[in-house]
Design goal:
homotrimer, 2-enoyl-CoA Hydratase, Chain A, domain 1, about 15% strand, globular, EC 5.3.3.8 (chains A, B, C), fatty acid metabolism (chains A, B, C)
C-alpha cells in the first residue's frame, strides 16, 4: 500500500490517492487511485487534441486534461467522438495515443463521476468507459500507446486496448490494473484484456494483488512491448507505426478481429448487466459514505 | 525414467517408486510415484497440524505424515476438515501449507487407496481428492505453498492449487505432474490448473512427457514463483503473506473467484463422471494385477 | 516487406515470393510466400520418402520435392497417405519430419493450386490442407519436426502441428505464419495452433504483422523448442524421440488428445464452412487477376 501512496505523490495531486475503510469481512475496502480526482474547471477547452498527418495516414491523439488526464464522462465522450471520426476517415490508418502532461499518461477513472451522482448518471458514465474500450480494442486502425508517464487502472486499460505499447524507460512510471489494492474489482473485460496481453498467471497475480509495475517490470511480464528513453517515445511510436502500416490493412484488420472478437462479444452480450453491477456497487451507502469522507479529507488538506 | 527412479531414492522409500508392466499398445503402462505407499500404522495421531496466529490472521498447516505425506483418504479427510475450519474462522485470512518432513512436501496419492478396494471405496477416495482441490483452489483465504521438499503429482496439484508458491532452492527437489511417465493420465482439472499456471505449451510438454522439474527449472517455467534457501522457505512465506493480506480481502476474493470460477465449475459439473472414470480405470483387472505384483515386489524387497 | 523479399532469395527461387496489388481499403493486398510456386514437372517420382526403423519404432519422413517442398495437392495427398500408413502400423510409434532440400523445410502452399482452378478443385485442395493438419496435430505417434531450413506459412503450420520442434541454428532460416504480410489471412485453426504454441499475445503480434522469425527469435518466443547446429538436426531429433518413446504410449496419447481435442473439434465441426470461405476468397476475380499478373511477371523474369 505504501507503494500505491508513493505513486499518488508522483502524480502530483497529494492526498488524492488515499484509502477509506468501509465494511468488509476482513478490514478495509478502499477507493483509489483508479479513481482520480480532477480539479474542477468549467473550461470548455478540448481535453483531447488530434493531429492527422494525411501524408502518412497516422493520427496522433494527445490527452491534455490536467492535472492527470482523469477519465471523466466529458473526457471519455470527447475521446470516443474523436476515435469515431478517425475510424470513419479513410485517410487515417494508424492511431498513436499519448499525453501532453508531464509524468502521467492517464490516472484512470474520475472519482467525481461516482460520488453523489444518480444511478442514471453513474450508468451513463460506465457506459462511456465500456464504449472507450470497445472502440479502441476493436479499432480497424493500427493503434499504438505512446506511454510517456504513469498509467494506472483506466490508463492501463486504455494502453492494453491498443495493438502495441511503447513506454518511457523511467522506473518511476508505473502501469497496472491496481483496482484490487483499493478495494474494488476490475470487471471481467478488464481481466480478459489483461489475460490476452500477459497470460493467465501473470494476470492472476497482477489482479489479485492489484500490482502496479514499474516500466522495466512491465516490460518483463509483457504488459508493455518496448521501453525507450522518455524523449523518444513518440518518435519510436511513429517509426513502429510505419511497420504496422506496411502490412496490408484488410488482412491485418480481419486478423485483429479474429484475435479479439470473442473478448469483445463477451462484453457486448453482457453490457447491460455489467452496467447494472457497477451502478449497484458504486451507489451503495457504504461506498458513497466512504467517498464523502474521502473528499472531505481532501478538502481539509487543501485548507 | 531413470530420473523418476532416482527421485524415488530421494524420497527415502526404496522400491516405492517402481513400475509395472501392464497391457498397452506399445510396451509398458506403469504405476507410480504419483501413487506413493505409506507405511501403515494404526496410529490416530493427526497427520496435519495447524497453528493459527490470531494476531496476524495467518494459519500454518503442517503436513506431518511420514514417510512422505502420502495423500490417503484419512489424510485428505483431515486436510479438508482443517481447511474448512479455517475457511469458516473469520479471524483467519491467510493459509501457509508446508511439510514437517525432511526432503518431501508431499509425494502424492497413496497407492494403498487404490489396491484391492471396492469401487465404492475407490470412488470415495477420488471424491476426497477432488474435494481437496476444490477447497484449496477456491479458498477465500490467501494461500501460499511453502514447498520445502519434493512435490510430485498430487503434491504438485496441491501446490498449484495455492495462490503463490515458494520452493526451497535445492536442485534435488523436484515438482511436476508426472502421471504420464507412469502410464496414467492426469485428469482434466489437473491439466486445467497447470495450464492456468504455466500456459498451454509448457503444460502440454509437461503432461505429455510427465516431466518432473528441478526447483530451478520449475521457476523458469513459472511452476513456482520464487526460490529461497531451504531454511528461509517458511519465513519468506510469512513475509509474502503479509503483502497478500495488505490487499483488501473482499476485492481479492472476488478477483480470485473471477480468475478461477470457470475452471472450478468445470469439475463441479462433471464431478460424478470424473469419479466414474477414475473408478473404472483403477479397478480394471489389468491395473489391479499390476498393483498386486508391485506390492508383492515391495514386500519381497523388505524381506 | 524487404525482409520477406529477402527470404524469397534465400529460398533460391527468385521472383517466386513477390507481391501483387489488389483492391483493398488502404493500399496493397499481396499474395506470397505462403503460396510458393513449384517448377512443374510431370515426374511421378515420390515427393516424400519414408524410412521406418522397426528396431526403434521411429519413422523418418523426408520431404523431397524440389525446389521448395511446396504443398501442392499431390504433395499433400502423398503426405497424408504416408501419415495414415504409419498411423496404422503398430510397429511405428514415433515420426520425424524433415526435408532433403538445402535451406528449406517447406515454403508452404503451392500457388498453382489456386490459380485458374475450378471452385471444386480449390475446395479439394483446401480439404487436403485441412487433412494434413488434422492428421498431424491429432496423431497418436510422437511427432518431431526436424526443421533444417526455412519454414514459412504452411511449412510453419506443419511444424507447429508436431509435438516438438528442433530447428537448425542458422539465423538465415526463418519460420512463421506470415500470411498477413501478403494480404491474406491465416484461418482460425492456424491461429488456434499458434496460440496453443506461443500464447495469445505473441500469436496476436505474429499474425497481425505476418512476422517471420529467425531461428533464434523463434526460440525466444517458443515457436521452436530447441536450436542445434545444422548437421545435428536429425540426430538430435532421434535422441529426443527416444525420450518421448520412454513415456508409455497409451498415457501420452490420451494426454495429447486431452490437450488438443478442443482445437481439432473446432475445425471438424466447421470444416465445410472453412472450405467455402477459402474457395470464395481465392476464386474472387480480384484475387485471380492478381495471381495472373503475378505469374506473368514470373514468366517475364525467366525470359
Amino acid at each position: 500500500m505504501a507503494n500505491v501512496l508513493r505513486n499518488s505523490a508522483k502524480f502530483g495531486f497529494s492526498g488524492v490517492l488515499s484509502q477509506l475503510s468501509i465494511h468488509s469481512r476482513h478490514g478495509r475496502v478502499c477507493v483509489s487511485p483508479c479513481f482520480s480526482l480532477q480539479q474542477r474547471n468549467n473550461s470548455t477547452s478540448p481535453k483531447i487534441k488530434v493531429d492527422l498527418d494525411s501524408s502518412t495516414g497516422v493520427a496522433v491523439l494527445r490527452m491534455q486534461s490536467p492535472p492527470v488526464n482523469s477519465l471523466s464522462l466529458d473526457f471519455l465522450t470527447e475521446f470516443c467522438i474523436n476515435l469515431e471520426k478517425l475510424e470513419m476517415d479513410r485517410s487515417c490508418r494508424g492511431l498513436i495515443i499519448t499525453s501532453t502532461l508531464s509524468k502521467v499518461f492517464s490516472a484512470g477513472l474520475d472519482i467525481m463521476e461516482m460520488y453523489g451522482k444518480s444511478p442514471e448518471r453513474c450508468g451513463e458514465f460506465w457506459k462511456a468507459v465500456q464504449e472507450m474500450w470497445l472502440k479502441l480494442y476493436g479499432s480497424n486502425m493500427a493503434t499504438i500507446a505512446a506511454i510517456n508517464g504513469s498509467s494506472p487502472a483506466g490508463g492501463c486499460l486504455m494502453s492494453i486496448g491498443c495493438d502495441y505499447r511503447i513506454m518511457a524507460d523511467n522506473p518511476r512510471y508505473s502501469i497496472g490494473l491496481n483496482e484490487t489494492q483499493l478495494g474494488i474489482v476490475a470487471p471481467f473485460w478488464f481481466k480478459d484484456t489483461l489475460v490476452n496481453t500477459v497470460g493467465n498467471r501473470a494476470a492472476e497475480l497482477s489482479l489479485e494483488l492489484g500490482l502496479l509495475y514499474s516500466a522495466p517490470d512491465a516490460l518483463k511480464i509483457g504488459l508493455v512491448d518496448q521501453l525507450v528513453p522518455e524523449d523518444q517515445v513518440l518518435s519510436t511510436a511513429q517509426d513502429t507505426m510505419s511497420k504496422w502500416l506496411a502490412v496490408p490493412d484488410h488482412a491485418r484488420q480481419i486478423t485483429k478481429s479474429m484475435m479479439r472478437k470473442q473478448t469483445i462479444d463477451k462484453l457486448l452480450s453482457n453490457r447491460e448487466a455489467d452496467i447494472t453491477n457497477f451502478v449497484s456497487f458504486i451507489t451503495k451507502d457504504s461506498i458513497q459514505r466512504s467517498l464523502r469522507m474521502y473528499l472531505e479529507m481532501l478538502k481539509s488538506r487543501k485548507a
